[in-house]
Write a structure and sequence with these properties.
The chain has about 375 residues and is of the alpha/beta class. It has 3 domains: about 110 residues, no CATH class; about 55 residues, Sun protein, domain 3 (Alpha-Beta Plaits); about 180 residues, Rossmann fold (3-Layer(aba) Sandwich), CATH 3.40.50.150. The chain is about 40% helix and about 15% strand. Strands 7-6-5-8-9-11-10 form a 7-stranded mixed sheet, sandwiched between helices. This is Fmu (Sun) domain-containing protein. It comes from Actibacterium atlanticum. Pfam families: Methyltr_RsmB-F (PF01189), RsmF-B_ferredox (PF22458).
Length: about 375
């Protein structure tokens, strides 16, 4: 496919997204229905789409309309390219610019549009991020780095780097976590690399690794990951300490690959259907459902789909999970509360409300990370039952 044909495909996909279809599903369906597109074509189209989703409002404003064609016109303008060079109508390229499109002159963009922030989230994010509001929002407009977690149960940082380099994947250590490597070249090769297949490395954001590094663990602990999802943080904790690990998620299908991943990593994890049956635990980690605002670089769709009502429902769910988790911790044990959110209502406010509802918990530490620290945005609070 030509570069212009890839833009035409991105326009088609973006129009489906604006019609409320999930981005990942659209991309998958498009790939199945267009077998002529090679792997490089599909990767380039995906990059166009996700770049557009990260910058949806500003690109639409630069293109003069809220549709896939205008968004891709705006994308080219934002990148300093003349859209007419791609919108030629030749072959499979998009149709040439009409006079209105060619003559459109964007005015200076308002802050919320320039920062690609939903209007209703401006105030909550300003209050949460303070002086970092604009720098963080600008960072969320960019593609996220790719990070790996080195499995120290099986290898060292240097040996993992050497193994990856032999397959053309260059990496560099990252200061956020002693197990984190940033992928510098050929990130799409990682999952087919021998280092990955042998369990030497796992794909995991550096900030996510940093959060699990802060969870207090010892070799004699009984540890529950209460909202385990795919089990990434479970495996990260198990890579640090040979404790007794359990994983649970309200949607069991999310954990279906965890036994295979744990075996590949050389760690033992018990998947539970009822976490109360094995209670109490020395450590309970609750990586709760949240807005995902700290990870909008990776999932920009979430930024545009989130509503005020959904955020309120998420906060209610988070409070209920915290209260449930509190009943599972032994006296003297630890409750770790984590989100990938930048919003105070999902982080500090939740902990303050929890401690008011549940006396007898000591606040040991809290840390909030943003994309300015290098990885995704994350929050962690550790409480001790006294």
């Amino acid at each position: 496919m030509t570069p212009a044909a890839r833009i035409a495909a991105a326009i088609e996909i973006l129009d489906s997204f604006l019609g409320e279809a999930p981005a990942e599903k659209i991309l998958t369906t498009w790939g199945r229905n267009n077998r002529f597109a090679g792997s490089k074509d599909r990767a380039a189209i995906r990059d166009h789409v996700y770049d557009a989703l990260r910058n949806l409002r500003s690109y639409a404003a630069l293109g003069g309309a809220q549709n896939g064609r205008a968004i891709m016109i705006g994308a080219l303008r934002a990148q300093g390219q003349d859209p007419a060079s791609m919108f030629t109508g030749e072959g499979h390229a998009p149709a040439p610019l009409n006079s209105q499109e060619a003559e459109f002159k964007a005015q200076e963009l308002p802050t919320d549009i320039a920062l690609d922030c939903p209007e209703w989230l401006i105030k909550p994010l300003q209050d949460s991020l303070n002086e970092n509001f604009e720098p963080v929002l600008k960072a969320l407009k960019q593609r996220a780095p790719v990070f790996l977690r080195v499995n120290l149960r099986k290898t060292t940082i240097q040996d993992a780097q050497d193994a990856l380099q032999q397959e053309g994947i260059d990496t560099a250590p990252n200061a956020l976590s002693p197990t984190a490597l940033e992928v510098l070249t050929n990130p799409r090769r990682v999952q087919n690399s021998q280092a990955f297949k042998d369990g030497l490395v796992e794909l995991q954001d550096a900030a996510s690794q940093a959060v699990t590094d802060m969870v207090p663990l010892s070799a004699t602990d009984k540890v529950l990951d209460l909202c385990a999802g795919g089990g990434g943080k479970t495996l990260a904790m198990a890579g640090r300490v040979r404790a007794n690990f359990f994983a649970y998620d309200i949607a069991p299908q999310r954990l279906r690959d965890l036994p295979v991943r744990a075996a590949r990593a050389g760690v033992d994890v018990t998947v539970l259907s009822d976490p109360e049956q094995e209670a109490p635990y020395d450590v309970v980690l609750t990586d709760v459902p949240c807005s995902g605002s700290g990870a909008w670089r990776r999932n920009p769709e979430g930024k545009w789909r989130l509503t005020q009502a959904q955020l309120e429902d998420l906060c209610d769910t988070q409070a209920k999970i915290l209260d449930r988790a509190a009943t599972l911790v032994v006296p003297g044990g630890y409750l770790a509360y984590a989100t990938c959110s930048l919003l105070t209502c999902e982080n500090q406010d939740q902990i303050e409300a929890f401690q008011k509802r549940n006396p007898g918990w000591e606040h040991l530490m809290s840390r909030s990370l943003t994309p300015l620290d290098g990885g995704d945005g994350f929050h962690l609070t550790v409480l001790k039952r006294v």
